[in-house]
Amino acid sequence: MGENGVGKNYYPQGGAAAAAMEVSSVEHGQAGGSKCYDDDGRLKRTGTMWTASAHIITAVIGSGVLSLAWAIGQLGWVAGPAVMLLFSLVTYYTSSLLSDCYRYGDETTGKRNYTYMDAVNANLSGIKVQLCGFLQYANIVGVAIGYTIAASISMLAIKRANCFHVKGHVNPCHISSTPYMVIFGVAQIFFSQIPDFDQISWLSILAAIMSFTYSTIGLGLGIVQVVANKGVKGSLTGISIGAVTPIDKVWRSLQAFGDIAFAYSYSLILIEIQDTIRAPPPSEAKVMRRATLVSVATTTLFYMLCGCMGYAAFGDDAPGNLLTGFGFYEPFWLLDIANAAIVVHLVGAYQVYCQPLFAFVEKWAQQRWPKSGFITGEIQVPLVSSGFKLNLFRLTWRSAFVVATTVVSMLLPFFNDVVGFLGAIGFWPPAPSPG
């Protein structure tokens, strides 16, 4: 994964299409081209601070919010909110550093970096580039595994909620999560064959609706439970030694740190979001810093409400996943809606987060074997209204990736543990020093 092998225009808007636009822009002259194209020859960007904030909020508010009540339960009323605030400040600071890396050199006229790895290549060299590339793609694999586990647990929760409603809460309703992981994996094999899945315009809107749906339901149920309890549960220091051993207390506290970190992580796609912002003035970096401030503040407020209300409702017994840990049993249909929203959100989120890895491997293969029909050839598949081009290498490689992540997920069906681990590796400082 050297400088010529990682992240160089591996998104759909790069390569030949970008070159063609640049030639077109030059041919029509600077004055005419500036109306339709930016300074790099690509179609004029139209994003604003508000659209960038919306993209960030959509990316950040995910299934990690459901573990925050448990995380605060391990740390208590003092350390829990304080750690959440600390991570929000660290996220804002590192995101501001990373946004300065969008252009190499001058922040208004320097060369644009279209992806995270483009920014790494422009500012670092040698083993540092390889390390950043490895961490980014390893994190993507981890996110794919985590999303598979979370989606299967939510599907399982729908089945169990209905079982509890019919047979009573004392019935164990033991059901295996393996079939649901297989179902999710089959769906991902199908969706992974759609080219440029991350560019589908309605995807962010749907993901945002689903995120706010299940998060709001969790918040509402927490408020109702607090009212039913006629008071707030919890303690200043969280779960006490005695209820757990000292070693377990330390381990749970560190895991809570990981859960909170996972809930804030979005560095993998920050540069891609910034690349949607219209050209200066003001500079994209200034707009992105303001967007980060707005989105992180909004997210932190929402996290505080969900996490603290969940802890207030259940105290030290807060479940690892607020909507699947069955602190709530009724109304079962509302739990079904919330968990269905989680599944729909994760189906799309899985694909969006995996696109950089998919594109990197496919570009590397095309550069390595440019004359191979298996890698570069496409088969026209007739559909209802238009043709669909199927690439055999894409079919094989992406299907193998989905199968591998699904199998690993079957071996690691522990939502909280996986979330904490992903948060730990994903919050590694993401920002290369701007040049």
From TrEMBL:
Domain Amino acid transporter transmembrane spans what residues? 45-429
Q: Which domain of life is it from?
A: Eukaryota
Q: Where are the transmembrane segments?
A: 49-68, 75-94, 134-158, 178-194, 200-224, 291-312, 332-353, 400-428
- Which GO cellular component term is one of those annotated? membrane
Q: Does the keyword Secreted apply?
A: no
Q: Which InterPro entries match?
A: AA_transpt_TM (IPR013057)
Specify the protein name: Amino acid transporter transmembrane domain-containing protein
What is the originating organism of this protein?
Answer: Triticum turgidum subsp. durum
What's the source species' lineage?
A: Eukaryota, Viridiplantae, Streptophyta, Embryophyta, Tracheophyta
